[in-house]
Design goal:
12 helices, 44% helix, Methyltranfer_dom, alpha/beta, seven-stranded mixed sheet, transferase, 284 residues, Lys/N-term_MeTrsfase_sf, Rossmann fold
Length: 284
């Protein structure tokens, strides 16, 4: 077992059941990240996969429920790739997302991380696919691993999803697997402002009739803001529960996984969108 795993296990084993110290774990995550840099480990190196998967498997559920920005801290520490695997991969998600994407669509995958979703989408016929992430290390590794000669046109770029360099209405689909969850751990003012920037950028780069497809655990504050924001624009929302992702072999994060399809429509002046009284939990 690598020294990073030993380091993390020392902390996890010291925690009493039900007494998870999230603040201490944040410190651990940062130390793990620093140690990985000292060893010059990429996110997909075997040692880093060992420690990230071990941590995500043991405390992923507590972290996701913690709020107060902790998931963002962990993302910065390089653990988001392992947590994102708990949202399912293409084989579990395809029966849902394929309904809302065409192989001819121009697709942007925001916050791609080290998930193989992009490669699987490309191999499934979606050739017009771009991927962005904030991490220089992740992008370098993903280009090396997946943007090979057998996948011409598949690209990974280091870019902020809140401020992309793409043209207006360039994409038919913006795909978001866990990125909204990572960026919105709570509903504090600065968090809401960050998400408003993300949504405005999605609006800018999506064509009319385009779809913003969000794969999410849909915590209450997320679904409330998501529905409220896009409803005010006159966009149409569909929410589907993805049980295949929940029951994938080896899943340790036992929490419902949802796919939200937000379709962009042109807002008609002087027309107020109809408000429906509904409870999204009925689809549980």
């Amino acid at each position: 077992m690598c020294f990073l795993c030993c380091f993390a296990i020392t902390f996890l084993c010291s925690q009493e059941p039900g007494a998870f110290d999230l603040k201490r774990f944040e410190q651990l995550a940062i130390q793990v990240n620093d140690l990985s840099r000292q060893k010059q480990l990429a996110p997909d190196d075997e040692d880093m996969i060992d420690v990230k998967d071990m941590i995500a498997s043991n405390i992923g559920r507590q972290v996701l429920r913690a709020g107060s920005g902790n998931l963002v801290v962990l993302c910065g520490a390089g653990l988001r790739g392992s947590l994102i695997k708990r949202y399912g991969e293409y084989v579990e998600l395809c029966s849902t997302i394929n309904k809302y994407m065409k192989v001819s669509d121009n697709i942007l995958n925001i916050g791609c991380g080290n998930s193989k979703l992009s490669a699987d989408l490309y191999d499934g016929g979606y050739k017009n696919l771009k991927n962005i992430d904030m991490s220089e290390v992740v992008i370098k590794n993903m280009n090396k691993k997946y943007a090979t000669a057998k996948r011409p046109g598949l690209s990974f770029e280091q870019m902020d999803a809140l401020n992309t360099t793409y043209e207006n209405e360039q994409f038919n689909v913006v795909l978001d697997k866990g990125t909204l969850d990572a960026l919105m751990p709570d509903n504090k003012q600065d968090t809401v402002e960050r998400i408003e920037k993300l949504f405005k950028e999605v609006d800018r780069i999506l064509k009319q009739g385009g779809r913003y497809i969000v794969i999410s655990l849909l915590q209450d504050h997320i679904v409330q803001f998501l529905v409220s924001y896009f409803h005010s624009l006159g966009w149409m929302l569909r929410i589907s529960r993805c049980r295949e992702a929940e029951h994938a072999a080896g899943r340790s994060l036992i929490q419902p996984v949802f796919v939200v399809i937000v379709t962009k429509f042109k807002k008609i002046p002087n027309i107020t969108p109809v408000s429906l009284l509904w409870d999204w939990r009925v689809i549980l």
